[in-house]
Amino acid sequence: MNFVSVRVITDDIARLVDFYERATGVTADRATEDFAEIRTASATLAIGSTRTVPLFSPGSAGPAENRSVILEFLVDDVDRVHENLTGVVENFVKEPTTMPWGNRSLLFRDPDDNLVNFFTPVTPAAVAKFTRSGPGLSG
Predict the structure, then answer these.
(1) Residue 139: its pLDDT value, please?
(2) Which CATH superfamily is domain 69-134 in?
(3) CB within 8 Å of 74: residues ≥ 6 apart
(4) Distance from C-alpha of 76 to C-alpha of 66, rounded to nearest angstrom
(5) Inter-residue contact 96 to 120 (CB < 8 Å)
(6) For residue 43, how many C-alpha atoms fall within 13 Å in the half-sphere facing its CB?
(7) pLDDT in tens, the chain (139 residues)
(8) Which of 28, 108, 111, 120 could staple 36 via S-S, CB 3.0–4.6 A?
């Protein structure tokens, strides 16, 4: 098994795709007007319109209802990213802070109120963890 993506459902796909393109610097692959993907080297953030939900099961997912998942992105320099996101992000939850496990994290909310963490490993142990095991460990 290989974990490859997370899908976010939204009422305004154009707004959310634009936000993630600006925040990540990655151009989305827009398969249709109802579905796009932000692909990185290790995983994909899929963004689907509410019009796609009935294809799975009507009512099985809803937009802007997440309060339990954090979307996490490994970045080279979280402090520089924070500067670049000023004016793009409306709701910073936590300014860049070094966490007890060795990652410097920036938490903010996307336009649909999903929690996002951009982080950079800064301690030798955290750097080694991501160099040895690759991305996928929590920020």
Answers:
(1) 56
(2) 2,3-Dihydroxybiphenyl 1,2-Dioxygenase, domain 1 (3.10.180.10)
(3) 42, 119, 120, 121, 130, 135, 139
(4) 27
(5) no
(6) 17
(7) 999 999 999 999 999 999 999 999 999 999 999 999 999 998 999 999 999 999 999 999 999 998 899 999 999 999 999 999 999 999 999 999 999 999 999 999 999 999 999 999 999 999 999 886 555 445 5
(8) 28
**Domain range list for the chain:** 1-55, 69-134
| CATH architecture assigned to 1-55 | 2-Layer Sandwich (3.30)
What is the distance in angstroms between the CA of the first residue and the CA of the last residue of the chain? Answer: 22
Answer yes or no: are the C-beta atoms of 30 and 48 closer than 8 Å: no
44: number of CA atoms within 13 Å, CB side?
Answer: 16
Q: What global pTM score does this model have? A: 0.90
Q: Which token pair is 26?
A: 């990655």
The position carrying tokens 């963490």 is 117
